[in-house]
Specification:
The chain is α/β, with parallel strands linked by helices. The chain folds into 2 domains: about 325 residues, Glycosidases (TIM Barrel, Alpha-Beta Barrel), CATH 3.20.20; about 90 residues, Sandwich (Immunoglobulin-like). Helices cover about 25% and strands about 15% of the residues. The strands form 3 sheets. Strands 5-4-3-2-1-7-6 form a 7-stranded parallel beta sheet. Strands 8-9-10-15-12 form a 5-stranded antiparallel beta sheet. Strands 11-14-13 form a 3-stranded antiparallel beta sheet, with no helix packed on it. β3, α7 and β4 form a beta-alpha-beta unit. α4 crosses α11. The longest helix has 20 residues. The structure holds alpha-D-glucopyranose (GLC). Alpha-D-glucopyranose binds next to loops.
Length: about 425
Amino acid sequence: MTQVPEWFTNAKLGIFIHFGIYAVGDVSESWSFYHNTISHEDYMKQIDGFTCEKFDADKWADLIKKSGAKYSVFTTKHHDGVALFDTKYSDLSTVKKSPYKNDIVKEFTDAIRKRDIRVGMYYSLIDWSHPDYATVYENGKVPEDLSAVNKYTSPTDGKQDEEAWARFVQFNRNQMGEVLGNYGKVDLLWFDGDWERSAEQWGLPELKDYLKSFNKDLIINSRFCGYGDYKTPEQGIPITRPEGAWEFCTTINRSWGYRPSDNHYKTLNQIIRMFCDCIHMGGNMLLDIGPKPDGTIDERQEAILLGLGEWIEPHKEAIFDTDEGIMHRYFLGGSTISKDKQTLYLFVYDKPEESVCLKGLCNKIKDITVLHSGKKLGHVIHGGVPWFNIPGTTWIELTPEDCHEHVTVLKVELEGEIEMYGGSGVVVSHN
Ligand code: GLC
């Protein structure tokens, strides 16, 4: 993993948008025809219902701004191959085939850039609709059991067509060039689907040089056969900190795209806690919404974004431009540390029975403040072995009445840079 520009690790929250024709028929994005729950033909017919009649890029961008997010990632093309941008290399685009003739990528990108939100483009390397796509096998290896081959991925007769594949690679490169070249500066390219071919087949590493030629600071996610810049765990929150820069992408309900039948929504409280879990381990959260085919956003998804933003607002200093926090063995909750290392922010998830416990802190405490209310809190320290530099336990006097309705953040200002004791204690041999 390479070093990513600082804006990314400081950004903490991004909004992912899965917008596509799959929103029309209550089916999953691309995978529905891949798994044969709908025929490819019927899947594609959804494009006629992709009206976007109420689509208003400024409204979306306002909502994203209000969520507190610093970047967004938009599906310019999913595995179904339907481009949401005006492409001259294919007829399969919403611009050419759907009732909505405008370039959605352009409208949306212009709107978010106006609001100082960084621009991220999702682009699927896979294109299950392109005639030249399913022409080779991963790594060029013909599988022994051809009956297990999915016809959208590779040929089912064992015969590879290298020329067709070369055409596809060029086509993909051309479209990536459009995405990176036609909409002003793109900050982040979010690839998906690298798993169906090898690095060599995708044309790596040369392809990466080509992409970076549009913007040398372009960040590319990890779904790039080992050539990406940061990790993208998905749906299952990491328990161990991923190495290097990372971002956890997650849906609000179970689906990436809009599915009216999916009512399995996470609560605002759960989303906030997940967000805290990510920043506690130095990561970002990329929270997904799936707009409806008329261009509006489900009110439950909207409410989550607004609620998240309302929580973030009074807690900004504990979130942005901070580093990962202390281990759970010191504090049973999330935390972050200011860049100068002299302030520790504790994320208290539940209302305390009595007080909040912080172990292993070597520094003297200057002040403790409940961030959203400004209320100062007292604390007591019990135990410790000062002559062996083993600190006592700090008990912070937070009452349930002082708590925020979601996550309460305590600002603990320290004397000097934070220092934590990590040993296993001693026998006190002299008193
Ligand atoms: C998966 C899926 C895809 C989804 C993506 C988001 O890899 O292939 O449907 O868009 O994850 O992270």
